[in-house]
Amino acid sequence: MTRMDGFDDCIVGVAEQYGRPSVLCYSVEKVINKLMADGMTEEEAVDYHRFNQACAYVGETTPAFLHPYTDE
User: Fold this and answer.
1) Would the N or C end of the chain have less CB density within 10 A of its end CB?
2) Which whole number is the average pLDDT over 3-21?
3) Is residue 63 within 8 Å of 25, Cβ to Cβ?
4) Helix (H, G, I), strand (E, B) or coil at 54
5) Domain around 15
6) Does the structure show a pLDDT above 80 at 54?
7) What b/e readout covers 32-65, taking b as 16+ CB neighbours within 10 angstroms?
């Protein structure tokens, strides 16, 4: 499984899907909070995550990102 360097504390589990390798699953909230703790504003952290982490493809074991679920 592919890890994001420096974000082990943001891992919330392992995602599985039939016929595909398991991947690490990161909490989007934890990732954004970590980026902000490292000095980014919320807007910078969200933009950085979207463009540099969530949109990155590094092969079949590219990590997944979990967003909070709301039924609204």
Assistant:
1) C
2) 97
3) yes
4) helix
5) 1-22+36-72
6) yes
7) bebbeeeebeeeebbebbeeebbeeeeeeeebeb
Name the one residue in this structure whose structure tokens are 């994001």.
Answer: 4
CB 7 within 8 A of CB 37: no
The tally of domains found in the chain comes to 1
Task: Say what the pLDDT of residue 71 is.
Answer: 85
| Residue 56 included in any domain | yes
Could you tell me if 27 and 13 are in contact, meaning their C-beta atoms sit under 8 angstroms apart?
no
Asked whether residue 5 is assigned to any structural domain, the reply reads yes
Nearby residues of 58 by Cβ (< 8 Å), 6 or more positions away = 2
- Does a structural domain hold residue 42? yes
- 45-59 mean pLDDT: 97
